[in-house]
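Wed. Picked up where I left off yesterday with 5-formyltetrahydrofolate cyclo-ligase. The coffee machine is broken again, so keeping this brief.
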Amino acid sequence: MNKEELRLKYKTLRDNLELNRIDDLSLEIANQVLQLPIWDKVNYHLFLSIRNKKEIDTEYLLQILAGKDKNVVLSKSNFKEGTLSHYLLTDNTTIKVNSYGIPEPIDGIQVSEQQLDVIFVPLLAYDKKGNRIGYGKGFYDRFLAKCKPDVIKVGLSFFPPEDLVIDVREGDIPLDYCITPTEVYRF
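Structure written out below (tokens, as returned):
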């Protein structure tokens, strides 16, 4: 399947999930993340869930990171430039939902892409080679291209991988792992 077909398929699959099922699956994903060899790192980038798109609830993962005393970094979108800026989550961070439904920090202590060690990446679908399909705006591919080469990229998905994404582009950056409620996929 190509990216557009996969986007449609996985948006539909997510739309059909009940909210209580999303909650249960999100908790299972957070528990699976504990198996990863990533816990010796310092700076973890996390996306906050877009509730109306039925994304994985990352609140459980946020609690794990806080419990392990890790630095959590959140992004703020600039839709005019197609870029993300990154801010350290602190007790003083104010989160506001933007016009696209994305919870984001208003401002705070800015963190460069080069400082990040682990990035939890949102996605709609992915394949067995770690190729990820997002919403199609390229925000995360541009963001990941600015990170240090050894940054660990972890996708989170309710669903298993597709066999192959046929229209992978040169600028697409593959994942290192993808976590589902029942599996840890390594690429």
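Quick read: Residues 40 and 70 are 9 Å apart (CA to CA).
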